[in-house]
UniProtKB/TrEMBL annotation:
Keyword field contains Transferase: yes
Taxonomic lineage from the root: Eukaryota, Viridiplantae, Streptophyta, Embryophyta, Tracheophyta
Reaction(s) this enzyme catalyzes, per UniProt: glyoxylate + acetyl-CoA + H2O = (S)-malate + CoA + H(+)
Assigned protein family: Belongs to the malate synthase family.
Protein species of origin: Rhynchospora breviuscula
GO molecular function, one term: malate synthase activity
Residue span(s) of domain Malate synthase C-terminal: 420-540
Protein name: Malate synthase
Gene3D superfamilies: Malate synthase, domain 3, Malate synthase, domain III
Keywords, sorted A to Z: Glyoxylate bypass, Glyoxysome, Peroxisome, Transferase, Tricarboxylic acid cycle
Length: 551
């Protein structure tokens, strides 16, 4: 029997594989263990601060600008100069760290590919470890994929997108790697293994002396940014590379973080390449932050777009903050996927994408996200035709008008109606996403949109909010109050609809029944769970005893 060679204090409980062993080397695990030991206390404190903030919000409070850090917001300082290799980020594609996806995304014509260990990936042992193998091969430019069904071999083009990697959020553990008797912190595993194996090749072959580049998710406060900055500095010292080589873009996707954007950039000022509008998670966070506020019942999620006042202000303030500090202000996701069997519907969807991206570039964003390669060309056309031949708008779109944005602007209730169809769509999407996630897929095409965990989270917390406070559905001119009994009937009916849509064979083979029970439970629990995937994670953990040994 083969074993992983592990350093003292480290145990691997995931399946042994000879390819995984090339990633899980003794030295790489020692590096990850060093990060865990150095920073676990800081991470625990940050998570405790999140819990204390949650208590304040649940007691009637609201997030706002911190008076103690006013001097950071009002002082004139800049982040480090943007590396030339990533000056142009006009369109970025995102997706999980799957082999075929990585090749297609790098070949897509986008400027950046964000390879995702977070919301677009179901974090099973197999997915995570194969992801690291795939990224190593991509950076070495040896990655290929043979699609046997199509008898086609995929490989990289001569010109490819710049690679960014998104590790998991602070809250997620890695239960297959035990360090000093406790599960490793998931993001430190993701970052540590990737950085250790790839920093040298990335800097020389892809980053023109800079990198690796990262996206950082789910941040709520600048103290969390400070931890990441310290991690980057320790990694740079260990690797013997220049301070400021590692660069990261922070997703502003929680409501508390929008009040901390200057502070987050300040903490990461030597390692920052900007902020991104993570708008789906931002809506999820708005509901979660105000979960104890019955006067903040949101309309159907499809109505909560970037034209809503609080969303527009969030985007405008992000642009102002980033450009004042000399870094990129990245726009939000276009989740549409091609509708191949209906050209008219496809063109209508593309026109919505163009309008959204035109709004972003005219507002001052330097780039934006797309979920599918088919969107890259039309989005790129919108941005390049509106940026006067420049790689970005950092120097040209100051947006000083956004200085007038207030705390009240950033939390203003969105307008709209709530409908039974909104409740049904939330339920249908949430259950189907969770069923896919439980079977190893974290990026799921549903109803011509590419859904990830963020959309499922909005669906879950909005259902919970409506049920908890007996929201009145008024979207169809008939007022219906949401009750646990109504929701139970909706779940039953939507399960039947899912069965019809996916077919009996797939429904029976999949984990739809299990997903339905989990989703329904999370929508009706007295206390809102912080994250859908945190509760479901134990259902995808598979331990293989005695796969590691100290040799």
């Amino acid at each position: 029997m083969s074993f992983y060679d592990v350093p003292d204090g480290v145990e691997i409980r995931g399946r042994y594989d000879h390819q995984f062993a090339q990633i899980l080397t003794r030295d790489a695990l020692q590096f990850v263990a060093g990060l865990q030991r150095e920073f676990r206390g800081q991470v625990r404190f940050a998570m405790e601060c999140r819990r204390e903030a949650k208590k304040r919000y649940n007691s009637g409070g609201s997030p706002g600008f911190d008076p103690a850090t006013r001097f950071i917001r009002e002082s004139n300082w800049k982040c480090a100069t943007v590396p030339p290799a990533v000056a142009d980020r006009s369109v970025e594609i995102t997706g999980p760290v799957e082999r075929k996806m990585i090749i297609n995304a790098l070949n897509s014509g986008s400027k950046v590919f964000m390879a995702d260990f977070e919301d677009a990936l179901s974090p099973s042992w197999e997915n995570l470890m194969k992801g690291h193998v795939n990224l190593r091969d991509a950076i070495n430019q040896t990655i290929t994929f043979h699609d046997q069904a199509r008898n086609r071999v995929y490989k990289l083009n001569n010109t490819i997108a710049k690679l960014f990697v998104r590790p998991r959020g602070w809250h997620l553990p890695e239960a297959h790697i035990i360090i000093d008797g406790e599960p490793a912190i998931g993001c430190l595993v993701d970052f540590g293994l990737y950085f250790y194996h790839n920093h040298s090749m990335y800097r020389s072959a892809h980053g023109a002396g800079f990198g690796p580049f990262f996206y950082l998710p789910k941040m709520e406060n600048s103290r969390e940014a400070r931890i990441w900055n310290n991690i980057f500095e320790q990694a740079e010292r260990t690797a013997g590379i220049e301070r400021g080589s590692i660069r990261a873009t922070v997703l502003i996707e929680t409501l508390p973080a929008v009040f901390q954007m200057d502070e987050i950039l300040y903490e990461l000022r030597d390692h920052s390449v900007g902020l991104n509008c993570g708008r789906w998670d931002y809506i999820f966070s708005y509901i979660k932050t105000f979960q104890a506020h019955p006067d903040r019942l949101l309309p159907d999620r499809v109505q909560v777009g970037m034209t809503q006042h609080f969303m527009r202000c969030y985007s405008d303030l992000l642009i102002r903050t980033c450009h004042r500090r000399g870094v990129h202000a990245m726009g939000g996701m276009a989740a549409q996927i091609p509708i191949r069997d209906n050209p008219a519907a496809n063109e209508a969807a593309l026109e919505l994408v163009r309008k959204d991206k035109l709004r972003e570039v005219r507002a001052g964003h330097d780039g934006t996200w797309a979920a599918h390669p088919g969107l890259i060309k039309p989005i790129l056309e919108v941005f390049t035709s509106n940026m006067a031949g420049k790689a970005n708008q950092i120097q040209t779109a100051a947006r000083e008008d956004a200085d007038a944005i207030t705390e009240e602007d950033l939390v203003q209730m969105p307008h709209g109606t709530r409908s039974l169809e909104g409740l049904r769509l939330n339920t249908r999407v949430g259950i189907q996403y969770l069923a896919a996630w439980l079977t190893g897929t974290g990026s799921v095409p549903l109803y011509n949109l590419m859904e990830d965990a963020a959309t499922a989270e909005i669906s879950r917390v909005q259902n919970w909010q409506w049920i908890k406070y007996g929201a009145v559905l008024n979207g169809n001119g008939v007022k219906i109050r949401v009750t646990p009994e109504l929701f139970a009937k909706v779940v039953e009916e939507e399960m039947e609809r899912i069965k019809r849509e996916v077919g009996l064979e797939k429904f029976t083979r999949g984990r739809y029944q299990e997903a339905g029970k989990i989703f329904a439970k999370q929508c009706t629990t007295p206390e809102l769970d912080d994250f859908l995937t945190l509760d479901a994670y134990n259902l995808i953990v598979v331990h293989h005893p005695k796969t590691s040994a100290r040799l």
